[in-house]
Design goal:
With 832 residues, the chain is of the alpha+beta class. It has 15 helices and 45 strands. Belongs to the protein kinase superfamily. Ser/Thr protein kinase family.
């Protein structure tokens, strides 16, 4: 084994931890012949994670932890000795002990921390993986793992780690917050799975009170927080021995992590490479903000206000019990009185004044009140409280007297008007000013406020203007990188209050806007609480994660409460349908149309065959093909897209798409494959050739009004030139036209096994694969025998009959159309 090497020094300024580290190139293993101390580290094989000593903030306490190796701002994800720090890392050591455990020893050689695993051999090594997992395993057999850090998470949920319950031992694997921002000791907030065995997470205060729930898991999302699975696909395991959640290690460049924060919230942070900063992508509880719903967030006599920062403050007459804890983000210790109450022996002194009450309006009343019966006025309720030395507050509301004894918890300022009440807080008389001093205070306050308001308005206007300009400029500079999180106000500014509408659909409207440097953007404003949320999640998890020249690029997004917006690159030429169907003259030459068909096929082939999961677009039509300045096509509108894992051949989903482009299997309700997109592509290819809708009556023809039937007829006659859009005046490459028509006919076969893949479609269009004469689908043969005018309903009823008969024939003898299809399909290499 190679010992970690020392020698390269890289001082880093650490705003989060306040420490300069010497980060050096190192191995990923601690063996019996090596150890760590001082500045020494080990690094995972891919350089993603680092293990060593670190010092959080300005403290003199050192801990052994794991942090991200490619993030310059040191961010720990696991801490070994979180309750027992060491004073000097240079005299402390991490090593493999004689019994095979990984241990931390201080300067005196005393044991500070150990893996405490039951090892059968003292020949073990500790290896740090790129997933953030520190494994203690047999030196000669890497599959024999005797201990791993993922089984003992601290405040961060890493991929591969389990959060759940061992039903046999009763042991719960949970996330526990730090005590404060500089102390990794266990805090008072936990994220854990329901101990009663249901598939929902709870956030628990002080191991006693559940104040937030994720809702149960339905196999895809949590009922109460559906947006929690934007980037991670959670896996839920439940059996007689245990039930737990985990999510896989995807080994992507982007870093996203879940943290149980000292604020009592579970937060998802994402590292933005372009801005070199962490952004808060998602957090709970919130509605849209529920910071004050965290139980006892501000401690005793502390009041929470979600409209200001910091959220917590001591109520009048009180001060922080421990100011240093408050400064580090831990306000749970609460507040103590400035002046003791004049009660009992104090009240009997000659110069004492009786306690008074501070009126606090718009308050959420604290918990654990008592109701005094038989009291019918505010004055009697006040007197009852004064006469009891333990009474600290009262409220008279609805004809009833409520009193509180001892500490007051969960106070909240500026509470909901419909639920707010007035609380009378008991204070020593010296804490409340006399009426005269009140008048002076009010006068000075009015004058000061008037001046301050004028100054603040000017400053606010300047700051908002500068911040908006700088953020949009950063967004403009980041357009070539990852997703940009926009604020709603920024998109209002970029689109001039959504004044230039350029399109719309079932999920909302699209507006044109621009970033600094005149970069045009298209902003889709999703509408409808359920459908808009569903499309938002689908598009971010599909087009947001993939890049291709023939897929419209998602630049960023905005998710603020009910405001869900998606920001795309702007396509100057609009959608394909406007050029095919709505223009008397055409900008689309045959060469341009053919290139559009090729580009669209490339985009679909990428989705079907080259992504990690097969992505079925489910809504291919001219309206969803956008064109740039040079008429290059890009697929858009992934709101109906469906993922299909590579281990599955079909996926069952509800009917989705647009009438006129739906494959027969949609109508019969059977599970679909990527061939459903192939069918839609074929129908669209007919329209690219003809320049009109498939279901419109032709103006100059005695043939049936359904264009695909006309294509089959003219192919048999060898009269393909008559199929071309009349606006092209015969200017066409006849070989390409015949190839496109035959290919479209193959794509719309009733039996999906007879349709080509999008990869084969692309090979045909590019001339690498020869295409034979296609058979006429049974649904079209039935149509050609029907004398009535063809419309959408008749066509789809016919498809249903044909598909049903086709399904029956598969269990018996093949019909003639299937026989012809199979014959054509076996025509030899380079043909189908």
């Amino acid at each position: 084994m190679v010992s970690p090497r020392i020698g390269c020094v890289l001082p880093l300024l650490l705003p989060l931890f306040g420490l300069l580290f010497d980060l050096c190139s190192a191995a990923d293993t601690i063996s019996a012949n090596s150890s760590l101390s001082g500045n020494q580290i080990i690094t995972s094989s891919g350089g993603d994670l680092v293990l060593g000593f670190f010092k959080p903030g300005s403290t003199d306490r050192y801990y052994v932890g794991i942090w991200y190796g490619k993030v310059p701002k040191i961010t720990s994800v696991w801490v070994a000795n979180r309750e027992t720090p060491v004073a000097d890392p240079s005299t402390s050591v991490i090593k493999i002990s004689d019994d095979g455990n990984l241990v931390l020893l201080d300067a005196s050689g005393a044991l500070v921390w150990t893996t405490a695993a039951k090892t059968t051999s003292n020949s073990t090594v500790a290896v740090l993986l790129d997933s953030g997992n520190l494994q203690l395993r047999d030196a000669s057999n890497s599959s024999m793992v005797v201990w791993q850090s993922l089984d003992y998470p601290t405040n961060t949920w890493l991929p591969g780690a389990r959060l759940g319950l061992n039903k046999i031992t009763g042991v719960t694997q949970r996330l526990t917050s730090w005590k404060d921002n500089e102390d990794p000791a266990p805090g008072i907030f936990n994220l854990e799975l329901d101990p009663n065995g249901t598939s929902q997470f709870f956030i628990v205060w002080n191991s006693t009170i559940n104040y937030w729930s994720s809702g149960t898991w339905n196999g895809q999302i949590f009922n109460l927080v559906p947006e929690m699975d934007y980037y991670h696909v959670f896996q839920y395991i439940s059996n007689p021995a245990e039930n737990y959640f985990t999510y896989p290690f995807d080994n992507q460049d982007s870093i996203s992590t879940y943290v149980m924060d000292v604020s009592g919230q579970i937060k998802q942070f994402t590292w933005l490479i372009n801005s070199q900063s962490w952004i808060l992508f998602w957090w709970q509880p919130r509605q849209p903000r529920q910071q004050c719903q965290v139980y006892s967030l501000c401690g005793a006599f502390g009041s929470c206000n979600e409209n200001v920062l910091p959220f917590c403050k001591c109520v009048r007459g009180f001060r922080a019990r421990n100011q240093s804890d408050w400064d580090l983000g831990d306000q749970s210790g609460g507040c103590v009185r400035n002046t003791p109450l004049q009660c009992g022996e104090r009240a009997n002194s000659s110069n004492s004044q009786r306690d008074k009450f501070l009126t606090m309006d718009n308050m959420r009343l604290p918990v654990n009140n008592q109701t005094l019966d038989g009291i019918g006025s505010d004055e009697d309720c006040q007197l009852a409280c004064l006469n009891n030395c333990s009474c600290t507050a009262y409220s008279f509301a609805g004809g009833r007297c409520y009193v509180w004894h001892g500490e007051l918890l969960n106070l909240q300022d500026q509470y909901s008007q419909s639920e707010a009440s007035t609380l009378q807080l008991r204070l020593a008389a010296s804490e409340l000013p006399s009426p005269k001093s009140n008048k002076k205070i009010v006068l000075w306050a009015v004058v000061s406020a008037a001046v301050a308001v004028l100054v603040c308005l000017a400053l606010i206007w300047f700051v908002v203007w500068r911040r908006r300009s700088s953020r949009l400029m950063r967004a403009s500079n980041a357009v070539g990188g990852g997703l940009v999180p926009f604020r709603y106000s920024e998109l209002l500014h970029a689109t001039k209050n959504f004044s230039h509408k350029v399109g719309g659909g079932g999920f909302g409207s699209v507006f044109k806007g621009s970033l600094p440097d005149s970069i045009p953007i298209a902003v889709k404003k999703l509408e409808g609480l359920h459908q808009g949320e569903k499309q938002f999640r689908t598009e971010v998890s599909t087009v947001g994660m993939i890049q291709h020249v023939n897929l419209v690029r998602l630049i960023g997004f905005c998710s603020e409460g009910t405001n869900k917006l998606l920001v795309y690159e702007f396509m100057q030429k609009g959608s394909l349908d406007t050029h095919l169907f709505r223009s008397a003259s055409t900008d689309l030459t045959w060469k341009t149309r053919y290139q559009i068909a090729v580009g669209t096929a490339k985009g679909l082939a990428y989705l079907h065959e080259q992504c990690r999961d097969c992505i079925i677009h489910c809504d291919i039509k001219p309206e969803n093909i956008l064109l740039d300045d040079s008429f290059a096509p890009k697929l858009a509108d992934f709101g109906l897209a469906k993922f299909m894992g590579r281990d599955f051949s079909r996926v069952l989903t509800t009917t989705r798409g647009t009438i006129g482009y739906l494959a027969p299997e949609w109508i019969t309700g059977v599970p679909i494959t990527a061939k459903a997109d192939v069918y839609s592509y074929g129908m669209m290819l007919f329209e690219i050739v003809s320049g009109r809708r498939n279901l419109e009556n032709p103006e100059e023809s005695n043939a049936t009004g359904f264009f695909p039937t006309l294509v089959f007829s003219e192919l048999l006659k060898g009269n393909i030139g008559s199929l071309l859009d009349q606006r092209l005046a015969g200017d066409v490459n006849l070989e390409e036209l015949e190839r496109a028509c035959k290919l479209a006919c193959w794509c719309i076969q009733d039996d999906e096994s007879c349709r080509p893949t999008m990869g084969q479609v692309l090979q045909v269009l590019e001339g690498f694969l020869e295409v034979a004469m296609p058979p006429i689908p049974r649904s079209l043969r039935l149509l050609t025998e029907t004398p009535e005018n063809i419309n959408v309903n008749v066509f789809y009823q016919t498809q249903y009959v044909s598909s049903s008969q086709s399904s029956q024939s598969k269990s018996g003898t093949s019909n003639s159309s299937h026989t012809r299809s199979n014959t054509s399909n076996s025509s030899g290499a380079g043909r189908f």
